[in-house]
Structure formats: C-alpha cells, structure tokens
Specification:
The protein is an alpha/beta fold and 248 residues long. It has one domain. The protein is built from four helices and 15 strands. The strands form three sheets. Strands 1, 2, 3, 4, 5, 6 and 15 form a seven-stranded mixed beta sheet that branches. It has a five-stranded mixed beta sheet with strand order 8-7-12-13-14. Strand 2 and strand 3 form a beta hairpin. The longest helix has 14 residues. It is globular. The relative contact order is 0.23.
C-alpha cells in the first residue's frame, strides 16, 4: 500500500496539468501566499539569487536573506509553465538551460526516511530503482518511475540515487506538464556541486538553503516559483504589484 501511495503522489506531481491563468480574473498571484523568486543578471548567466516572500493580506514580506543558486551551464530559456508563451529562446531537452517562467512546485524528495524532517510538501524517499525518464519517445517522459514496477521503453534516464548526493534533498519543479516531446524534463531544485558550477538544467544550492526552502514551502499557501532574468522580473513586478528585490 505504501509503494502504491508513493506512485500515486509521484504521478500527481508530474501529470496534473498546468493552467495558464496568468492574466485571469482570479489570477495565480491573487491566491499565492508564498513566492520564490530566482533571478539572474543575464539569460546566459549561471549565477543567480533566490528570494523567498510571504504575503499577508496584500502585503509581501521577505523571509530570510537572499542566497546564491546555480542555474544551467548555458543559463536560462523560456520553459513551459503557468506563464503565457514568451518570444525568444525556448527550453529544449538537453540544452543545458534552466527553464525561465512561472511554475508550481511538486513533490519533495530525498535519501532519508520521511520522518527525518518535518515537511508540509509531499515527500518521496529515493531508492536505487528510481529514475527520471528523459526520453521523449517514452510514455514515462518527464516522470519519476520505479524500474521494478514498469516495463522499460526509454533509452535515456537520470538515476535519482547518485554517489555525489546532489539529490540528497530536492523538489520537483512542475515544468513541461503535461509533457510535450523534447520540451525538457526532470527539472529539480537540488544540492549544488560547488558555488558557480552550472547544472544540466536544474537549479542548485547549498544544503542548508535547500532544507530551509523545503521546510518553509506550504502547498496550502499555493507557492509559486518565478525564475527569470532581473529585467523580466521587473516587468512582472510592475504589472502584478510583486515584491521589490533588495540586493544583499
């Protein structure tokens, strides 16, 4: 029963459709009470900063200090999320770019047992048989699967239990869902190899910052991720009265 529960959580984390409600009458920013903002100075930058905000009524306040994160080795490209399609470079499978845009967070994951830390997010304990499928010809593209429970139909995949422990703690980012072929897959927040070390498309950070984020996020507060260049965020901020980013 426990394994079936985990599979159900995983499927929901990956397959529930994103809804493009950026400019709706009751938009995503109206109901969002937690906001994670990741901004880089330029689209090709690896180095970025992460800010956390919480809203009470209509007033945003920053939670903790901003901290550095690493983006893809080639920076950012517009991904597929809650935002409307944008002109410019688009996220593709294997492009070594992190997705820019507005996204929901999915399931948290880690190598430790679920009772090791207190989380509000759903949590999956990673085992050696779990992978994330990167082959867009697979029925499991952009999904976490247990190789002991499904029939293999993929050529490329990401092993979740890594010797370098970059996935010791992490959170799924709900990008490219439902999955479109070659649209990019297996996007996570996870631990970094070192400051300034670019990823293959994820967003990476120090362990203490990863744990702080995991423990803070609350699905009941409808958290959002805004990941983009500083100039793109300024455009959104003016339009939707979002918080000002104060440089550390």
């Amino acid at each position: 029963m426990y394994k079936n529960y985990l599979l159900t959580i995983t499927a929901l984390a990956f397959l529930l459709p994103n809804v493009l409600v950026e400019w709706g009458k009751k938009g995503i920013f109206d109901t969002c009470q937690q906001l994670v903002v990741v901004v880089s100075p330029r689209a090709n930058s690896v180095n970025a900063r992460l800010y956390k905000f919480e809203k009470t009524g209509k007033k945003w306040r920053q939670v903790g200090a901003a901290h550095p994160v690493n983006l893809g080795k080639k920076g950012l490209a517009w991904g597929k999320g809650l935002h409307k399609a944008k002109p410019g470079l688009q996220k593709k499978e294997g492009d070594k770019r992190s997705p820019a845009g507005i996204f929901r967070f999915g399931t948290a994951f880690g190598y430790a047992a679920a009772d090791t830390l207190s989380l509000k997010l759903p949590y999956i304990r990673i085992t050696g048989s779990q992978i994330c499928v990167e082959d867009s010809d697979s029925r499991y593209y952009n999904q976490l699967v247990d190789t002991t429970r499904v029939q293999r139909d993929w050529d490329t995949r990401e092993s979740m239990l890594r010797k370098d422990e970059q996935y010791k703690w992490g959170i799924f980012v709900r990008h490219n869902l439902p999955p479109q072929p070659e649209g990019g897959s297996c996007i996570f927040f996870h631990l970094w190899r070192a400051p300034g070390s670019g990823t293959l498309g994820c967003t990476a950070m120090a362990e203490e910052n990863m744990l702080s984020l995991m423990q803070w996020l609350d699905p009941q507060k409808e958290p959002l991720l805004m990941q983009m260049t500083e100039s793109s965020y300024r455009d959104y901020r003016k339009k939707f009265s979002l918080p000002i980013l104060v440089s550390p």
